[in-house]
Amino acid sequence: MTRIDHSLAGKTVLIAGGAKNLGGLIARDLAAHGAAAVLVHHHAGDSHEAAQATVREVEAAGARALAVQGDLTRPAEVARVFDAGIEAFGRIDIAINTVGRVLKKPIVEITEAEYDAMFDVNAKAAFFFLQEAGRKLADHGKALTLVTSLLGAFTPFYAAYAGAKAPVEHFTRAAAKEFGERGISVMAVGPGPMDTPFFYGQEGEDAVAYHRSAAALSPFSRTGLTDIEDIAPLVRHLVTEGWWMTGQTILVNGGYTTK
Hints:
Rossmann fold; 2 domains; 42% helix; 7-stranded parallel β-sheet
């Protein structure tokens, strides 16, 4: 029986939300560990410079790179981003979706517009990203979505955010079953609150202090917050040698929540 090469050697990667924060780190990490090419997706014009900086860093690591803008809440845009990667690199082997939008607000105050925005970015975009991955990934490819450790939490004020990420667990299971006959593995990873601007934009000083306290979050109690440097190696493993894991959601948070 021919053994499939699940390493990064010669592989092409598409990273949605790959301009900065965790997505940017994953782009650089996979390039540094042997990926042949990385498509860096970004959402809006104000992230263009960050996307270009990540492209330069990926190229410095020895991989080809391309930045592509697109609104992933529009299925046609999702398809266009995938097509851009195939046109530039010939194929896509690994598709990683780090796109997300957070809202911290009492459930009785959430507007219809806020609800719709949460589900558009966190659920709809993830669904159509996985759909395109199923259509366009090479055989024995890998698809991975970033969700949130709040899926294992009993906490207030994140009903719209965590609620909009929750469907991705089922999307992941269904896609894993449907794509498995082509050797494609599908996973979701839920980091804890990460030490990036994505976290600080919704949290007040008291909440930041709480999340940084030794007793609040991880029993390892370094800063309390999840370091993105601890997430990237797991993502790398799951889209390479960890391919045998599929259809699951892994919460990666140093013990912040369990499930």
